[in-house]
Amino acid sequence: xxxxxxxxxxxxxxxxxxxxxxxxxxxxxxxxxxxxxxxxxxxxxxxxxxxxxxxxxxxxxxxxxxxxxxxxxxxxxxxxxxxxxxxxxxxxxxxxxxxxxxxxxxxxxxxxxxxxxxxxxxxxxxxxxxxxxxxxxxxxxxxxxxxxxxxxxxxxxxxxxxxxxxxxxxxxxxxxxxxxxxxxxxxxxxxxxxxxxxxxxxxxxxxxxxxxxxxxxxxxxxxxxxxxxxxxxxxxxxxxxxxxxxxxxxxxxxxxxxxxxxxxxxxxxxxxxxxxxxxxxxxxxxxxxxxxxxxxxxxxxxxxxxxxxxxxxxxxxxxxxxxxxxxxxxxxxxxxxxxxxxxxxxxxxxxxxxxxxxxxxxxxxxxxxxxxxxxxxxxxxxxxxxxxxxxxxxxxxxxxxxxxxxxxxxxxxxxxxxxxxxxxxxxxxxxxxxxxxxxxxxxxxxxxxxxxxxxxxxxxxxxxxxxxxxxxxxxxxxxxxxxxxx
Length: 486
What we know:
This protein is mainly beta. It contains four helices and 26 strands. The chain has helices spanning 4-19, 168-178, 328-335, 399-405; strands at 22-36, 39-46, 55-58, 62-69, 77-80, 106-112, 118-124, 134-140, 154-163, 187-190, 207-210, 215-222, 229-233, 238-243, 246-253, 256-258, 263-269, 276-283, 296-303, 352-364, 380-386, 389-391, 437-439, 443-444, 451-457, 477-478. The strands form seven sheets. A six-stranded mixed sheet has the order 10-9-12-17-14-15, with no helix packed on it. It has a five-stranded mixed sheet with strand order 11-19-18-13-16. A four-stranded mixed sheet has the order 2-1-4-6, with no helix packed on it. The longest helix has 16 residues, at 4-19. The protein is globular and about 70 Å long.
C-alpha cells in the first residue's frame, strides 16, 4: 500500500506549482515629452510613463519581460534586489551580466521570484538612464498566504527620485569629460512629481487618499540616483514592517532614512483630524564640503472626509518637521532599529574574508591633457575606487559572457581581498594614496562559500559615511565595481 504521507506531499508540491503564475510584460524604452519645473524635456521612459509601470507579482511567480529599445542610448534593465538564482543572465547590469540592448534592439528577461515578499524595484542600469527609467516591483505573499501583520486597507507605492532640469546623460557625460563632480539634481520627486515647493509644480503634486481610521501600507522606494533621503509624514507615526523584500520586527518611527536603492514598507493609520498633511523628503548629506541638492519634495496625504475649503480660502496642508540634512544621530537611530523577525543563523566558520575600502580618489591630469578635462581639485580628475581599483567597463563582451565562454582578456581575477596599502582610512591621507588604479577586476568565490565582507569608508576627498554593497546576482563570482567620474 502506498504511503499516504508521500502521496500528500506529492499533492502539496503539485498545488505549490499550480498556484505560481507566469506574467508577461512588454517594456518599450522611448523618449517621451515630460514637463517638470516649467520646462519640457524629451525624457527616456518605459511605455511613455514616468515613473514606469508598477509590476505586482506573488512570491513564486515568474516574470517574462520583453524590452524593446526605441531610445537613442544603449540600455539594460536591472531587477533590484531580486535573487537571481540560476538566472544571472536576467540580472541586468550593463557589461556585467549582459551587453547593452542597442537602439532598435530587444532582449527578454525571464526570472522567478523565490522566497521574497515585500517591495523591490526595477531600473535602467546603463549610464544615468536610471534617473528616469524606473518603477516599483511589488511581491505579495503566495496565494492563500498572508502578511505577518493585519492586512492594510490599501497599499500605495511611494517612489522618491531625483530630477535634473537637463538631460541626465548630458550631466554625466560632462562630468566624465571634465573630470569634475556631476552637477547635483534640481529637484527631488515623489511618484515623479516635485511638489508644492518647486516652481510650476503645485497643480500636479502627488495626492494619496486615506479614510479616517483605516490603515494603509506605504511602500517607500528611494529611486534617487545619488542621494540618501529622509522621509516623513506630518503628524503621523510610521510602523516599519519590511525592508528590501524582507519582513522585520515592527517598530514605530516618525522619520525614515533610505539610501539609494533601498525600500521600506510602513503602516500608517488615519488617526488624525481629517485634513491634508504633507509627505516630505529631503537629503541626508553628512559628508563635509560635498555639494548636494538641498531642496524638499512633497506629496499630500489627504483624508477623504476633509472639510471642503471655504470659497476663496485655500487650506494648506500641515507641514512636517524634517531632520537637518546632517542629522547623523537620527539616521543612525533609524538604521539601528532593524531586527529580523526570527533568529538568524550566522556561520561561525568563514571561508573568505574581504576587507574593502570604498571612497572617492583623485587622478593626476594625464600628460598632454587640457586643463578643461581636469577640473577636479587642484587640476585632477575624480575617480571612485574600491581597494584602490577604479572599474573600467569592458569594451565588447559582458563579464558573465566572458566567464561562461572562456573569452580571455575581458577581465582579470586579481581584485585584492584587502587594501594594497594600509593607512588611516578616516584621517588625513597622504597624497601618494589618492590615485586609484584603473582595471576590470573580479574576485572569484567558490559556490557555497561563507564570506565575510567588511566595507570601510575613506576620507581621501571627503568622508564616506555609508556604503552600499549589492550582490543581487547569485553567481560564483563576487563582482566589486566602481567607476571613474560617477
